[in-house]
Amino acid sequence: MGILKGTLPALLTPYHEDGNINEKEFIKYCEFGISKGLDGLFCNGSSGDSQALSVEDQVKLMQLSKEAAKKQVPIITGITSTVYKNTFVLAQKAYELGLDALLLAMPYYYKFDEDTLFEYVKDVTSKVKLPVYIYNIPLFVPSLSLKFIERVSKLDNVAGIKDSSGDALLLYHILDVVPQDFDVFVGREEFYAGALFAGAKGSMTSIAAVFPELMSEIYKLSRQGNFKEATYLQKSILKSIRFAMSFSFPMGFALLLKARGFKFANASIHPLSENTKKSLDEKLDEAKKVLIQLEKDTGVSLKN
After folding, report:
1. DSSP letter at 186?
2. Predicted structure pTM score
3. Could you give the strand order of the β-sheet that contains 132-136, starting from the edge strand earlier in sequence?
4. CATH top-level class for 6-226?
């Protein structure tokens, strides 16, 4: 359908020490990302703690994303919920706010067979007013089969998929079986360059929220056919990804943002143990060293 393309960040949610959303900082780092080449914004995903936030807070993040975007780039928001009615509340609010698309993961906790999941997607997509992207994220919900993805790709209001499986073979097969105008995005930052070479439309990743200039450059170089430089940049960010994933998700990515100078407190929507808080404090210097090394490797300044 061509709704989205390029590099989108899976936006993290900054909090004050009291656990409330730091609205000012959220807008600041969204605007920063857009200035560094991002092609859109993605709020209310796994990186943003969407499944731990109230409906009201998720709507607030939609509003803040809209304010930050200033109509320069499109916005997609997650609407996943185990509460069936909440999915439609979020979808309707996104429509009223003028967002561009919705991202729908399968219901988690309750295990449904794929025929039931197909009916779920068919029902949701037939009732909402914005294009829907299906979310395959085996890290948190059961993996979607190629057969299921092919079936849902033919539904009228399904515009594409975000595949966070990290499975290169699956990605190639998805690209082979879905309609030509079906948007395929990857959600694993380790595989962005390879996915673009294979024919993916773009990415929605946590690291794009941290290093928008680098992920955007991978997209630009790939579009230019400069596979060598795109692959070099791809390899350069791997250490930072391993660092971020060494913490409980998504706190490692928030720590890298803190190292970049953004006000991401060592806070979460969930209570943190004293050991976790101490570890985050102790690892800040290491995060700064990761940034310094990345600057050396890429020649790109990571100063805000």
Report:
1. E
2. 0.96
3. 6-9, 202-205, 183-186, 158-163, 132-136, 101-105, 75-78, 41-43
4. alpha beta
